[in-house]
Amino acid sequence: MKGLRQVFRELVKDPMGRIGLIGVLLLILLAVFAPLLAHYSPEKMVSMPKAAPNQQFWFGTDNYGRDIYSRILYGARVSLEVGLISVGIAASIGFILGIIAGYFEGRIDRIIMCIMDILFAFPSILLAIFITAVLGRGIENTMIAIGIVNIPVFVRTVRASVISAKGLEYVQNAKSIGVKTFPLLMRHIAPNTIAPFTVQATLALSSAILTEASMSFLGLGIQPPDPSWGSMLSEARAFMEQAPWMVIFPILFIVITILIFNILGDSLRDVLDPKLKT
Amino acid sequence: MNHLLEMRNLAINLYRGKKQPQVKLCEGINLDIKVRQNFGIVGESGCGKSITCSSIMGLLSYPLSVDPSTSIRFASNDGEVDLTRLSASQMRRIRGKEISMIFQEPMTALDPMYTIESQINEALSFHTSLNRQEMHVAALAMLEKVKIPRPDQILSDYPHHLSGGMLQRVMIAIALINNPRLLIADEPTTALDVTIQAQILDLMNELRESYNTSVIMITHDLGVIAETCEMVAVFYAGQIVEQAEINELFHATAHPYTKGLLKSVTSLGKVSEPLYSIAGAVPTAGAFSKGCRFHDRCIACTEKCRTSMPELTEVAPGHLCRCWLNQEANNA
User: Once rounded to an integer, what is the mean pLDDT over residues B56-78?
Assistant: First the structure.
C-alpha cells in the first residue's frame, strides 16, 4: 500500500496525471473563487441580450443579457457541488453495501446484488429522471437522484475487492487469532478496497457532472435562474444560430471538466494498481 | 475425556447450488489428539488436510461447511466443548487463545499495512485486558522466546522488512502468545529454505515442551514428520488411509499409498536412480468410485478393491489401515 505522498509524487511524474491534477485543481479554484472572479452577478441582466464576446463580456451575454462568463463560473460551483455530494452519497452507501455483500456472501449477497443489477440495468439518465419525478425537482433531489444512480458501480467495485481480500492469508490469520468481524472488516479487508474505490470515485465524479448537466438540460435538475451548464445549454438551444457563443462555452467547459476528471482517474488507476499497467 | 481433542466422523460438505447434491470433500475422519502430543497429518495436495484443520478452527466458509453429524470435542479451559456447536462469539474466544494456527506462507500471512507490534497486539487485545505498556512488554518477551534478534527494533518494522524465516518466527510468536492448548501448523516450513526449516522445527519442538502445547503438524514432507511427530495420520482423497505411531508407520508400513510416499522420498545415496512417483493423480471429490479411493493408482489392486470400500481397521495395536490386503491377511 502506498502512502498518500508517494501516490501524489507518482501522479505528478506521469504527464497525463499532471494534466488531470492541474486541471481539477484549476476547476476547483474557479469554483471556489467564483464570486471574486466573476464580473457580474450570474442572475443579473447587465447588457443587451445576446451580445457577442467582447472585452467587457468575455464569453458574450445570453438571451436575457446575463454575462455568460460569470454564469459559467457559478455553474462550475453547481457542477462540482452536485458531483461531490452525489458521489459522496453513492460512495458511502456503495461502500457499506459492497462490504456486506462481499464479506457475507450467500443470501444477503444475492439480494443486494440483485437490486444493484436492477438499478444498473436502467440507463442512468432515465433512472435519475424517474427518481426526481418521485422526489420533486431541485438541487438536493438532483444530488440524491444522481447519488442513487451511481451506487451500483461502487457496490460492485468494493464487493469484488472484498471477495479477493477475504481469501488472503493474513485475513484468515487475523480470523484465526479471534479478531471480531467488524475490526476484521475495517482493519484488514477495507484497506484493500481503497485503490479501486478511489479510482472509481474520480471516474464517477465526471459521470455525475455529466448526468447533472443532462438533467438540467432537460429541465429536471437545477432550476432557473440558478446557473448550471446544462440549463444554460438548454436555454441556448433556441438561439444556436444567432448566438453560437451561448452554446459553445458551456459545452467547452462540460467537455473539459469530464476530460480532466477521466484523465485524472485513469492515471490514478495506473498509480494505485500497477498490475493493470502493461 | 482423556484427549485434548476428539474429532468424530468429520465430514465436510461442498455446496453446489440448490439443484446439485452436496459433495463430501472429507468423510469419516476420526482424530484423537492427546495433551502434549505432536500429531502429524501427511498427504498430497488436495486430499483434505488443510480443510480438516480449518474445520477445527471453525474457519470454513461458504460454500464449504462441516456436516451436522460431526462432533469435534475439545477440552478447553472452561471444560469440554463441542467446537462444531459453539456460537460465533464463543468460537472467537477459543481461536487464538486456546487453539492457534500457523500458516504456510509467512510472507502473506501478516497484513502488510500494520507493524509487527500492532499485529501481535491484535492477538493480545482480543483475549487479555493488558494495557499498551504491558502488551509491549509481552510482545517483546515473546519475540525473544522465538529467538528474534533485536526484538525491540523488529516490533516497529513492517512485514516487508523481514525475511520469510523471521516472519515465520513472528507468526509462531503470535500463535503462542496466549499460551494455547493446541497449535495447528499448516505446512509451516514449506515456503522456507532447508536450513531455516530445521531451525523453525527445532524452535517449535522447544516451545511445545515449554508451553505444554499439543501440535497438529500438516505437511507433505515425510522428513518433517519423522523429525517432529509422535503420531501420524496419512490422508488420501478426504479419508484417513493409515494412522500409526511414527516408528510403526515408517517400519511396518501397511498401506500401499504410504509405501509409495515413503518410496518417493529422495535420499542423497542413490543419485543414479530415477525419482519414484506414484502414477496418476488424486481423484476429484464427487467423482470417487464405490471401491477403494486409491485403487486406480495402487500397484496391488484386486477386483475387490474396485467394487467395495475397505474400512479403517486395526492391523496392529494402535496401527490403523484402510486396505483390503491387510484385512485379508489378518483374517486368514
Answer: 87
Q: What is the DSSP letter of B3?
A: S
Evaluate whether B225 touches B40 at the Cβ level (below 8 Å): yes
pLDDT of residue A23 exceeding 90, the answer is: yes
Q: Does A106 contact B at CB distance below 8 Å?
A: yes
Higher pLDDT, A277 or A88: A88
Query: β-strand B79-82 against B71-76: which pairing, if any?
Result: antiparallel
Instruction: Spell out which residues of chain B touch residue A166, defining contact as CB-CB under 8 Å.
Output: 61
- Are B94 and A174 a contacting pair at CB < 8 A? no
Provide mean pLDDT across the span A128-132: 89
Note whether A177 and B89 are within 8 A (CB): no
Return phi, psi of residue B102, to 5°.
-115, 135
Q: Cβ contacts (< 8 Å) between A193 and chain B: which residues?
A: none
Scored b (16 or more CB within 10 A) or e, B212-237 reads ebbbbbbbbbbbbbebbbebbbbbbb
- Work out the pLDDT band at A146, boundaries 50, 70, 90: very high
d(CA B298, CA B279): 9
Pairing of β B5-14 and β B99-102: unpaired
What does the block give as the cell for A179? Answer: 479478531
User: Where would I find the H helices in A122-193?
Assistant: 124-135, 139-166, 169-176, 181-183
Interface test with B, best of A110, A168, A177 (most B CBs within 10 A): A177
ipTM higher than the 0.85 cut: no
- Range list of H helices, chain A: 4-13, 15-32, 34-37, 68-104, 106-121, 124-135, 139-166, 169-176, 181-183, 194-217, 229-236, 245-272
Closest Cα in chain A to B55: A176
* Cβ neighbours of B62 in A, within 8 Å: 105-106
The one-letter amino acid code at A130 reads F
- Residue A249 burial by Cβ neighbours in a 10 Å radius (0-12, 13-18, 19+): buried
Instruction: Tell me which amino acid residue B142 is.
Output: M
Q: Which residues contact B174 (CB under 8 A, 6 or more apart)?
A: A173, A177, B100, B119, B120, B123
pTM: 0.80
- Sign of torsion, CA B125 B126 B128 B129? positive
SS3 A213: helix
State yes or no: pLDDT of A278 exceeds 50.
no
Q: In 3-state terms, what secondary structure has residue A50?
A: coil
CA angle A66, A67, A72 (to 5 degrees): 115
Per the prediction, chain A carries an average pLDDT of: 88
What digits encode the pLDDT tens for the residues B281-299?
888 877 787 888 888 888 8
Residue B270, pLDDT above cutoff 70:
no
